[in-house]
Amino acid sequence: MLVIRRADNSTWEPPGGVLELGESVEAGVRREVQEETGLRVVVERLTGVYKNMSLGVVALVFRCSPAGGALCTSSESSAVEWLSPDDALGRMGEMYAIRVRDALGTGDPAIRAHDGRQLVA
């Protein structure tokens, strides 16, 4: 799993971010991953939809495969690493760990809600 340690709060999570106005979802995924990690990726499939109930923010998570580039940090990432799923899950909080678990699945995309820290019913 490709993970970053965020520069602003030192938490470990999958790379990601906010789409720019007029940007397609796939282009935004590719841009965000490259900005934060140095890698170019091919977007494969949607693996989950996650709503932060406290902020009203919806995150779409995609499984990707590497297509070039070289790992590097950025102003947004203080570390970028390839980790085993178990190591990645061990470093992340619940709301990011579940996204990794869902991305490893082969079924339909998951739809989940959280409060910014933990899953909610």
How are the strands of the largest sheet arranged? 4-3-6-7
Distance between the termini: 27 Å
CA gyration radius, whole angstroms? 14 Å
Low-confidence segments, given as residue ranges, are none
Shape: globular
Q: Enter the CATH topology name.
A: Nucleoside Triphosphate Pyrophosphohydrolase
CATH architecture label name: Alpha-Beta Complex
The CATH superfamily name is Nucleoside Triphosphate Pyrophosphohydrolase
Q: In DSSP terms, counting alpha (H) and pi (I) runs of 4 or more, how many helices?
A: 3
Return the average pLDDT rounded to an integer.
Answer: 94
**Class by helix and strand content?**
alpha+beta
Number of domains: 1
CATH class: Alpha Beta
Give the tally of β-strands. Answer: 7
Q: What portion of the residues fall into strands of 2 or more residues?
A: 35-45%
Give the helices and strands as they follow along the chain. Answer: EEHEEEHHEE
Sheet with most strands = 4 strands, mixed
Helix content: 25-40%
